[in-house]
Write a structure and sequence with these properties.
Elements lengths: L1 E2 L2 H13 L5 E3 L7 H8 L6 E4 L20 E5 L6 H8 L9 E5 L6 H6 L1 H11 L10 H48 L4 H19 L11 H9 L10 H4 L4 H23 L1 H33 L10 H30 L6 H24 L29
Parallel strand pairs: 1-3, 2-3, 4-5
Helix pairs in contact: 6-11, 6-12, 7-8, 7-10, 7-12, 10-11, 11-12
Length: about 400
């Protein structure tokens, strides 16, 4: 007996128990005994209730005398949304030349019928003059059920197709990020990449504070310098007079020279090898953290994007557009974070490690001195047991080295 879900299998089991019909239930709750249940399912007078997913991929061997009685009889309590699943249930009987048959029982209250075929079925029953409690066997009903299943399968296919289209957006972004991350891991020198990021940050910042829609007199040059002091410049590198009267391209060119000079000075200060290692660590950390945040934001966008359909907008197109914008923002945030850390972070020599090493050496020296003090003294003259110990501990000899 095949059921569509675990709840239905338990309901049918209760009904059989009331009728005192011995049976086994094969569902997700007793998968440990699945093999034993299937082994007994083909025996004479055996009744087995199984869900769609239970016992798949195994043949039910018919017991002695069962083929003569007609073989395995498969009874379906309802039609599934997919014809493929129904055929899998039918295929339990008549395997490898064994006899068998199958039959499905439907109710107008089944989910499939209620959602997709109730009105059509009711009209058919009224035309045929059938009563509500009268069983019905008709090819017309079969065709209606199959038509309903086709509708469900088409709906599910469209849903899966749409999911794949949404996933394609994330897949494209994932490929870009993973490639960038792999390039970072495999590269021994990221100086060109870092310089490119600093240039991008500089271009965006200048464009933000010198918009084309405003006249130069309205540009916020002080705000521009303050913002750059937080990322790529140091206080005092540039003044308002240095930038006053310049076009945006000239400002970028002037500031780019300052940024490169600061970058080279930083590299000379800590050493090229240490600078390369530091850049790699900073870049990997920035990419990983920003990418994880981006995944969460994209999932939140996806959960509510279907509401755009109420405004006559294509949710998938909206998701693509906003996802692309969010991805660009994420890339900008990565560039800004890498730039800020590379230019602003102070890399100190590992003084703590040196201090620990010095403490260990000092402790080791103290232990040696202590051990040296506790070495047994060589007695030149006889020392009384109650006399002070010659080691200088202040204790009596009998309680110290004479013990």
């Amino acid at each position: 007996m095949g059921t569509a879900n675990v709840d239905t299998s338990e309901l049918v089991s209760k009904m059989l128990k009331k009728k005192r019909i011995e049976h086994n239930v094969l569902n997700a709750k007793n998968h440990a005994n699945e093999a034993k249940i299937i082994e007994k399912a083909g025996q004479k007078n055996a009744v087995t209730i199984a869900t769609n997913m239970a016992g798949r991929g195994t043949d039910i061997k018919l017991g002695e005398g069962v083929p003569e009685l007609g073989g395995l009889f498969v009874l379906g309590t309802e039609r599934n949304e997919s014809r493929r699943i129904d055929n899998q249930l039918r295929g339990r009987s008549g395997r490898q030349g064994d006899p068998g048959m199958s039959q499905f029982f439907l109710s107008m209250e089944d989910t499939l019928m209620r959602r997709f075929a109730k009105e059509q079925m009711q009209n058919t029953l009224q035309k045929m003059g059938m009563e509500d409690d009268e069983p019905l066997e008709s090819k017309v009903v079969t065709r209606i059920v199959e038509y309903s299943q086709k509708r469900v399968e088409g709906h599910n296919f469209d849903a899966r197709k749409q999911i794949l289209q949404y996933d394609d957006v994330m897949r494209e972004q994932r490929d870009i990020i993973y490639k960038q991350r792999m390039d970072v891991l495999e590269s021994d020198n990221l100086s060109e990449v870092v310089e490119g990021m600093m240039k991008s940050v500089l271009d965006r910042t200048v464009a933000q504070y010198t918009p084309e829609a405003e006249v130069p007199e309205d540009w916020d040059i002080e705000g521009l310098i303050a913002e750059l002091n937080n990322t790529v410049l140091y206080r005092g590198d540039v003044t308002v007079n240095d930038l006053y009267g310049k076009e945006p391209e000239e400002i970028i060119e002037f500031l780019d020279g300052k940024v490169k000079a600061n970058y080279k000075a930083k590299e000379a200060e800590i050493g090229e090898e240490k600078m390369r290692e530091f850049e790699k660590v900073i870049m990997l950390r920035a990419v990983d953290r920003k990418w994880m945040n981006h995944i969460d934001q994209m999932e939140q966008l996806r959960q509510g994007i279907h509401l755009r359909a109420y405004a006559q907008n294509d949710p998938l197109r909206e998701y693509r557009q906003e996802g692309y914008t969010m991805f660009e923002i994420m890339v900008s945030d990565i560039e800004e974070e890498v730039t800020r850390y590379v230019m602003k972070a102070r890399i100190r020599n590992n003084m703590e490690r040196q201090e620990v090493a010095e403490q260990k050496e000092a402790t080791h020296g103290e232990k040696k001195q202590e051990e040296k003090k506790k070495q047994p003294i060589k007695k030149g003259t006889e020392v009384g047991r109650n006399e002070p110990c010659p080691c200088g501990s202040g204790k009596k000899y009998k309680h110290c080295h004479g013990a």
